[in-house]
């Protein structure tokens, strides 16, 4: 079965600094990949997704992610973090051949300091 | 806004009592999901549905049952609640007709079992 690993449980960055959140998956073929954000007390909101094509994907709120097949990774990046980006971020993977629901990583909590 | 509502939003109950959580969608989306979210575990799929009276188990289905008697409602039942079922429960839907597509989430239900 496919799985998703988010190696960092908690990351702290300074406001204005760049951000990279890591996501690795295990799956033999090309999966569908997603990043979601969850603000405190809220549901999950889709940031971006990759199905095929250009491996650099742009999302909402200034986020982007790059699919690297050779590294089985789909890392999320933002060039300049704002205090409002403090939240929990989840990577998810789906396997089109198996037609089964998304599998989520355990999440990375982002703290932003002044 | 995918038009998903969950009720109740908060519930406190006692061990051994039955509990039913409701997920309602305003459009006729085929796929609906129930997840639980716990610290350190991310989101874990409990059950999902791919049509009226069509359901399947997820990763953590023990102790839970579901029903879908009409397209717009997906019910999650804890027949005899236990303290280990204290969690935040999220309902989700897929806008497209496949479980591998993007999921959109409801606001969540916080359940406490004493």
Task: Supply the key terms.
heterodimer; A: mainly beta; Immunoglobulin-like; globular; B: 114 residues; mainly beta; seven-stranded mixed β-sheet; four-stranded antiparallel β-sheet; 0% helix
Largest interface: A-B, 23 and 24 residues
Tell me, what's the shape of chain A? Answer: globular
- Amino- and carboxy-terminal Cα gap of chain B: 34 Å
Question: What is the assigned CATH homologous superfamily of chain B?
Answer: Immunoglobulins
CATH topology heading of chain B? Immunoglobulin-like
> What oligomeric arrangement do these chains adopt?
heterodimer
Structural class of chain A: mainly beta
Please name the fourth-level CATH homologous superfamily of chain A: Immunoglobulins
In short:
The complex is a heterodimer of chains A (114) and B (114). Chain A has strands at 3-5, 10-14, 19-21, 24-26, 32-38, 44-50, 56-58, 64-68, 73-78, 87-94, 103-104, 108-113.
Describe this structure in words.
The complex is a heterodimer of chains A (114) and B (114). Chain A is mostly beta strands and 114 residues long. Chain A has a single domain, classed as Immunoglobulins (Immunoglobulin-like, Sandwich). Helix content of chain A is 0%, strand content 51%. In chain A, the strands form three sheets. In chain A, strands 2, 5, 6, 10, 11 and 12 form a six-stranded mixed β-sheet that branches. In chain A, strands 3-9-8-7 form a four-stranded antiparallel β-sheet, with no helix packed on it. In chain A, strand 8 and strand 9 form a beta hairpin. With 114 residues, chain B is an all-beta fold. Chain B is globular and about 40 Å long. Chain B has a single domain (4-113), classed as Immunoglobulins (Immunoglobulin-like). The mean pLDDT of chain B is 94. Helix content of chain B is 0%, strand content 57%. Chain B has strands at 4-7, 10-13, 19-25, 31-38, 42-51, 54-57, 65-70, 73-78, 87-94, 103-105, 109-113. Chain A binds chain B through residues 9, 32, 34, 42-46, 49, 90, 92, 94-96, 99-107, and chain B through 31, 33, 35, 40-45, 48, 58, 90, 92, 98-108.
């Amino acid at each position: 079965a496919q799985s998703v690993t988010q190696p960092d449980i908690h990351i702290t960055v300074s406001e204005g600094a760049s951000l990279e959140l890591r996501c690795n998956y295990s799956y033999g073929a090309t999966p569908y990949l997603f990043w979601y954000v969850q603000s405190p007390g809220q549901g999950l909101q889709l940031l971006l997704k990759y199905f095929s094509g250009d491996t650099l994907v742009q999302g909402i709120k200034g986020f982007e992610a790059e699919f690297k097949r050779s590294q089985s990774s789909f890392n999320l990046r933002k060039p300049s973090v704002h205090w409002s980006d403090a939240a929990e971020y989840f990577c998810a993977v789906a396997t089109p051949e198996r037609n089964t629901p998304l599998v989520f990583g355990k999440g990375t909590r982002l703290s932003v300091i002044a | 806004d995918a038009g998903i509502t969950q009720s109740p939003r908060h519930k406190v109950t006692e061990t051994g009592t039955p509990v039913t959580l409701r997920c309602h969608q305003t459009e006729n989306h085929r796929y609906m999901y129930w997840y639980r979210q716990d610290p350190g575990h991310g989101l874990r799929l409990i059950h999902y549905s791919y049509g009226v009276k069509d359901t399947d188990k997820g990763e953590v289905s023990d102790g839970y049952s579901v029903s879908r008697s009409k397209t717009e409602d997906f019910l999650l039942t804890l027949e005899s609640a236990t303290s280990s079922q204290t969690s935040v429960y999220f309902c989700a839907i897929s806008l497209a007709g496949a479980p591998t597509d993007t999921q959109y989430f409801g606001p969540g239900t916080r359940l406490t079992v004493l």
